Give the backbone structure.
Amino acid sequence: MKPVIPFVPEADSVERETWEEELRKNLASFAEVKPFDQLTDDERVAAKVAIVANPNPADVAALPNLVWVQSLWAGVERLTAELPEDGPLIVRLQDPQMADTMSEAVLAWTLYLHRDMPRYRLQQREKVWRELLLKTPQERTVGVLGLGKLGSASAQRLKANGFRVIGWSRSEKHLDGVECFHGSDGLTNLLGQTDILVLLVPLTAETRGMIGEKAVGDLKKGAALINFARGPVLDIDALLSGLDNGHLSHAVLDVFDKEPLDAASPLWQHDKVTVLPHISAPTITGTATNIVARNIGDYLKNGQIPQHVDRKRGY
């Protein structure tokens, strides 16, 4: 008899059926994937591993013998915040396709800013026909905050397209062709050189509010910003102040403290803000479920648990 693997998704997830179908198909040879609300009492008690997607913590707690959970997302800040530290180990999704998808988005929206698309958009609205001065990529310095898998792939893609790229990470790192900084002094140094800032740090206690009034002020005058990390990394009031006083030129925002973004938010109508609906690096169902199947298959076969989150660091 195949073991039952609970699937614990967000209650109102519109993607739930798609994930269920793909997970069942990919794990079918060695396990039965079953939604949390269809589990028997015995199946809840027997579960050692579960697949989760932004779950209700109470549902996870109702699986008392879990050893670890496999998240379907790369971001695990809700899990680390809401699951007890002595609870199941948390395995985040590490899909190589996601790094490629994110680096593509970083390049696309960096080019959007580099080629002055926001200003051309405003000129179109005002029916103004005016060519703007074009700089070369070599004349733009792009600062990437966060040099994990997503940040490193993005930095290398930007470098390959001619930009001068500098990077920052919590601890010292080395990346070919990229000048790397770390620590608080390193952050200040990077910000002062940056024309376009790309946020790709995980959300932790240390990075929450990281780009606030001081960091905005430390940025090079006229700099633009892309937030593809998490909403709370960026202080929106500090951002708006920097945009309104002319210190910052534009912001591309894909993530927010609360999603969907409230209709009353001033960000929607701001001339210097581009709002995106969290689309920079969506999880690709096919490749993600292949990775989940491999991780769970290895665990059932030999007890091997994949690399898991360090709860003290938050990632």
Summary: The chain has eleven helices and twelve strands. Residues 96-114 form the longest helix (19 residues).
